[in-house]
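INFO batch 0412 | record 1 of 1 | parsing
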Amino acid sequence: IIVSGAGPAGLLAARSILDRCPSARVRVFDRRGDPRAEDVLGFRAYSLGLNIRGRTALQHWKGLWERVAARGLLSSKFLLHVGDFEIQLRANSVEGVPTLLIAR
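INFO prediction complete | emitting tokens
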């Protein structure tokens, strides 16, 4: 089975397939190289943001959300920095669920 894309949806799809059929041969392909490698051209530093839907998806597997959350940073406010300007894109209400940011 080939999964196209190594983002959150692709990785969760691969994990779900293997949970349902452990003997399946699953390969995940992504257009970009490993961003941790120094020789990847066009690398951009950014984080993945997991909101409540991403959290719910990860909670289907015992302990997965906890392991991911331990490596991330909860954020309720998002700012876009353009030169000397700062633009607020979103701020959660006090009762809102913060987004988990994970370095990619």
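INFO post-check: The helical segments are 8-20, 52-58, 64-69.
INFO record closed
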